């Protein structure tokens, strides 16, 4: 039985467009093969017995990364700490080259 293609060239072209990448025909074929191999490998997970495994969307058990108004974030850096090793700073901000 012949292997059924999971992805098409059109899928790769669409992904490249979404990623703002311009690919040659050679690159499209290369990535088509690589992504098909990746999808096939991931399909191996279907063979695992996940009975009793609770689905999860994260693994850190962190439930709230926000702070109440007025509460001090002791994990964050002060402006002075953040800028301490910056080569270019101006008025307590990072100074970077204009990009547009």
Q: Which descriptors would you attach to this protein?
A:
100 residues; Histone, subunit A; single chain; two-stranded antiparallel sheet; mainly alpha; 2 strands
Write a concise synopsis of the structure shown.
This protein is mostly helical and 100 residues long. The chain contains three helices and two strands, in the order αααββ.
Walk me through this protein's architecture.
This protein has 100 residues and is mainly α. The protein has a domain at 9-47: Histone, subunit A, CATH 1.10.20. The chain is 34% helix and 4% strand. The protein is built from 3 helices and 2 strands. It has helices at residues 9-18, 25-43, 79-83, and strands at residues 89-90, 93-94. A two-stranded antiparallel ribbon has the order 1-2. A hairpin with a 2-residue loop joins strand 1 and strand 2 (93-94). The termini are far apart.
Task: Show unreliable segments.
Answer: none
CATH C-level class of the domain at 9-47 is: Mainly Alpha
Q: What CATH architecture of the domain at 9-47 do you see? A: Orthogonal Bundle
Mean pLDDT: 86
Helical stretch tally = 3
What coarse outline follows from CA principal-axis ratios? flat
Query: What would you call the structural class?
Result: mainly alpha
Largest beta sheet: what is the strand line-up?
1-2
Counting DSSP E segments of at least 2 residues, the number of strands comes to: 2
| Percentage of residues in helical conformation | 25-40%
And the CATH topology of the domain at 9-47? Histone, subunit A
Which percent range describes the beta-strand content?
under 5%
CA-to-CA gap between the ends?
Answer: 54 Å
What's the story with the biggest beta sheet?
2 strands, antiparallel
H-E string: HHHEE
Quaternary structure annotation: single chain
What is Rg? 24 Å
């Amino acid at each position: 039985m012949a292997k059924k293609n999971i992805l098409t060239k059109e899928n790769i072209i669409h992904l490249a467009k979404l990623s703002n990448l311009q690919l040659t025909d050679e690159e499209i074929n290369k990535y088509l093969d690589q992504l098909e191999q990746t999808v096939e490998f991931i399909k191996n997970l279907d063979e695992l017995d996940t009975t009793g495994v609770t689905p999860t969307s994260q693994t850190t058990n962190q439930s709230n990364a926000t702070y109440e108004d007025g509460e001090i974030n002791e994990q964050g850096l002060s402006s002075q700490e953040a800028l301490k090793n910056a080569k270019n700073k101006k008025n307590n901000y990072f100074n970077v080259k204009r990009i547009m």
